[in-house]
Amino acid sequence: MIFGRSDGVWLNEPQRWTAEGDSLQIVTDKATDFWRETHYGFNRDSGHFLGFPTGGAFTAELHVQGEFQELYDQAGIMVRIDAQHWVKAGIEFSDGRAMLASVLTDKRSDWTTAPYEHDASDFWVRATVDNGVLRLQVSADGKLWPLMRLAPFPRASSYLVGPMACTPERDGLKVLFTTFRLSSPLGRNLHDLS
What we know:
Elements: E1 9-11, E2 16-20, E3 23-27, E4 34-36, E5 43-45, E6 48-54, E7 58-66, E8 74-82, E9 85-94, E10 97-106, E11 108-109, E12 112-115, E13 122-130, E14 133-139, E15 147-152, E16 159-166, E17 174-183
Antiparallel strand pairs: 1-6, 2-3, 3-17, 4-5, 6-16, 7-13, 7-17, 8-9, 8-16, 9-10, 10-11, 10-12, 13-14, 14-15
């Protein structure tokens, strides 16, 4: 059982991972990534993702701990329909520092980054999907949840959601995921940060 559930499905299961109670620790394999076409012209669907099935509307939260040190080291949460429709969000190492990052893919990937002013080695991330809208939030303490991104997102009758990690330039990033929560959409006002 991982996160107290038995319905998780690996996409690109890492060679090294352990699960105990409410925690999942993985060590990334070499040259793993999720990306489609934009700027680089290639498609990558080799990142590590443990997806849990959910209906067409939900909120998912995840606590993430990792030491992001090399270019493109990344970990966080993924929401996925298929190889051409997904989002990943969390921390990614870029331009010499750990940054907030999200990639939204609807056949082609985009990429947004922003400085993260808290401890990037220990953060929380939340994804809410409801009525064709994606809301991403990040938290330093699991209590205050500022907005990270608001975007249209493809409607589906079901999604997979769960922890994601990749290291496009290396292997060996250790990431600890804990306190995964999956519920109906919170339905809170956009500026309600709870």
